[in-house]
Amino acid sequence: MSPPRAPGFLRHLGLLWGLRLQIGLNRGAGRPNRLLAVATFLLSSAPALFFGLVFFGLMRWRPVALSNVWPYFILNLLCFVTAAVWVTWPLLSAGVDDHSELSRYAPFPISPFRLLIASTVASLFEPRALVFYAPLTGAALGYASVNGLRAPWLAALNYALFALLCAAWSRAGLHAVLNVLRAKRSAEIIGGGFALFLFAASLIPPIDTSWLTAMSEAGGMEALDMSLIIHAAIALSRVPSGFFGDSLGQLAHGRVSIALAESFGLGVFALIGLAVAYVLLLRFHRQSGRAGPARKESGDRDPFARTGSRFRTLVTREALDLWRNPRARLLLSVPFVLAILLKLLSGRALFEYLLGQSADAWLMGGLAVYGAIVISSTFSQNTFAYDGQGFAVFLAAPVELAEVLRAKNLVQGGAGLGMALLVSLFYRVYFGHGAWVDFLCAMASVAALVPLTLAAGNFLSLYFPVKFHASLQRRDKLPLVASLLGIVAAALGSMPFGWALKLAGKSGPTLQTVAMIALSAVLYAMVYRRALPLALRLLEQRRELILRAVTRE
């Protein structure tokens, strides 16, 4: 009897998308769940239509359409920004563990190369990917409708190659981060990489932004030296991500041969990205059978020897689990990396031009709030499973689950506030700007955010528990509904910060601004205190359901 034939590529692609759908529904089944999946997909993809229409209209706007410079600058800038966001999004969004097919398919009869291709193609049609390239899509269609293209089929080909280029390097970045998390010395690698990045950034001269001041003093955009925009457009067109934008301009002028050469360049760099991603995927698969990153033994030192009480013991255990989590260390470094990039690109000068004396409050507070959101969305929204089999241990131990949840909330909230403190101090030292009022605004903003994200995280953990794979230091993908609810909670928690600084205007925040944010923090703390007893009651009722969800195979 001959063995059954191996599934074809399209079948593997269907299985991969089916797996993602199953994960997104948290293994739900039936017509209501399928309808919910479609509704959430459309809802999360809806911003793509808005962004596409906005940039389509921008390219058809008469001052832009009649210009010989602005269309090329906008297209090339959108190409660069789209590629940069797409490639770095798995790290910036704390989504490095969402692609669980890397390990799920490791023991299956599918070659790593086919898995890479199927996974890359699947990533092109995710809701976030649709949002990523929607502005560029709208701008390209708007440009084509105004200027007309010599070979439209070649423009479509270059668009597909550009998307493949972004997806390929996004997979390469994702696989690199996952390999770092799986490494035995992930903490040293992350810390060393951060120090090296900080050193390298200090050697690169910041971008000259004196033209912003000159333009402001001269009376606005009319006084802008267009040679700056021209040089910027040319520079952006010479990097691989800019080949697509430049090819549209070449086709508008009838230069098909140059557009073909840029097609070749897009294809070559996309293949290089796929090759790098493939090598990193093979490395990940070789390590996926290991029991996880080795942890240093603490010797004879017992961290629980002087805890004194059961609750303090739980808090100490939770803090140690969070500190030893490689992914927590990775996420802790993200706001600092963003701050370094901000200085390297002279972003503060741009914000100062746009926001006046409120620029430091926006930047310092924004980085602190972002760091707190990343920590809360990663850990508080999966509070019963991010420590592996920890919940099963708590069920077997003679402790009240109410104390466990309080300890987790205390540690996660303290981590968010501690991260805000470090980010704010780093900003003040690294940039040399930011008054104490800006610092108070940043801390008050995180103090307002943390209670609401903890309250939302408690209920999301109760109703959407997902399994954590301790051997791989990753979890299953959080259901899309839970992700959207978490985004809503983070937005509500960040609103006091945004409203207060918007009222402050360009003159900068004052003590009244700090008082407004602090009052919101008190109100959100009251919401948390009122919601906690209900969460504790539901925890006792749903303990077995949660246990089955976080320990299932």
From TrEMBL:
Transmembrane region(s): 35-58, 70-92, 113-133, 153-174, 186-207, 258-281, 330-349, 361-379, 410-430, 442-466, 478-499, 511-528
Domain of life from the UniProt record: Bacteria
Signal peptide bounds: none
Keywords attached to this entry: Membrane, Transmembrane, Transmembrane helix
Keyword set includes Cell cycle: no
UniProt keyword Repeat, yes or no: no
Protein name per UniProt: ABC-2 type transport system permease protein
